[in-house]
Amino acid sequence: MLLEVRDLHVEFRTRDGIAKAVNGVSYAVDAGETLAVLGESGSGKSVTAQAVMGILDMPPGRITGGEILFKGRDLLTLKKEERRSVRGAEMAMIFQDALSSLNPVLSVGDQLGEMFVVHRGMSRKDARAKAVELMDRVRIPAARERVRQYPHQFSGGMRQRIMIAMALALEPALIIADEPTTALDVTVQAQVMDLLAELQREYRMGLILITHDLGVVADVADRIAVMYAGRIVESAPVHDIYKAPAHPYTRGLLDSIPRLDQKGQELYAIKGLPPNLMRIPPGCPFHPRCPMAQDVCRTDVPPLYEVSATRGSACHFWRECLHA
Ligand code: SF4
Ligand code: MG
């Protein structure tokens, strides 16, 4: 297994108390595989990814338990230097907002080239040629001319392609993309997502795709892990999820995807808000919003029940949900 997160716990110290952002998350992704991590904001999906990348703000963020195994080594036990070299050469991250991740006063060619100068010891000239090649790979038209331009001279979609090029530069084993298309128009979203999926297959990378939108991952993910209140509430192959969700929260997310055949109808939305992470409800954390909640849900925390060999659900009533 390329990456295995085991029983990860992360807390944030705030002025009002301790926020339990990640509460026992386990997931895995192999080379050539795409895992979509799905959830509303505050579900812990980004924080988990930041812990994997080793870019969690600490303090106030603190990993209080668990393991992050990358190629079999627990990253949490590595020295700072080793950790940094794994992050630089073997993992890369793509963020939602390319404009704030790119340097506004450097041409994109210089930024892409820098990767090769610093990490591969290339000359400026060779690095520039590599930059053009990468821009071609992510299908930026007229790469040879545009390599001299600055980030603000590109459209949002093109900037996101540049981010992908930066991430790919050193051919990492793992890429984590955090809401990579959220800021883009729907049609551009699909193009960027297709490109990412294509490159992932070609380079046989592990890809973790973080999103709040179940609609964008259907065609590209192998597995989906749904997060709620810092836990994984359902984990399954993508087709199983679309066929029939085994958790009411997943069902809610599915029902809130806009569908062509329902044009004009009001979109379903899960009622209520995600919990305050300083006061996570007892029992099943989803119970205040769950249409299927029973008494037991208010007192007993559901474990991740084994629905099948490849599927888990943290719902006491996963059978009922599956057949609803
Ligand atoms: Fe709903 Fe109960 Fe299942 Fe939680 S355990 S998702 S409250 S039915
Ligand atoms: Mg986020």
Annotation keywords:
single chain, 324 residues, alpha/beta, globular, 11 helices, eight-stranded mixed beta sheet, binds iron/sulfur cluster
Shape call: globular
Counted by DSSP, the helix tally is: 11
Structure class: alpha/beta
Instruction: Compute the number of strand runs.
Output: 12
Strand order of the largest sheet: 6-7-8-3-9-10-12-11
Distance between the termini: 35 Å
Low-confidence stretches: none
Q: What ligand molecules are bound, each kind once?
A: iron/sulfur cluster, magnesium ion
Strand content: 15-25%
> Approximately how much helix is present in the residues?
25-40%
Describe this entry's structure for a reader.
The protein is α/β, with parallel strands linked by helices. It has a domain at 251-323. Helices cover 32% and strands 24% of the residues. It has helices spanning 45-53, 80-90, 98-101, 108-120, 124-137, 143-146, 156-168, 186-203, 238-243, 248-255, 318-322, and strands spanning 3-14, 17-29, 34-38, 61-70, 73-74, 91-94, 174-178, 206-211, 223-228, 231-237, 305-308, 311-313. Helix 8 (186-203) links the parallel strand 7 (174-178) and strand 8. Helix 4 crosses helix 5 (124-137), helix 5 crosses helix 7 (156-168) and helix 7 (156-168) packs parallel to helix 8 (186-203). The longest helix is centred in the middle third of the chain and has 18 residues, at 186-203. The protein is globular. Bound molecules: iron/sulfur cluster (SF4) and magnesium ion. Iron/sulfur cluster (SF4) is lined by residues 247-248, 284, 286-287, 290, 292-293, 297, 302, 315-317.
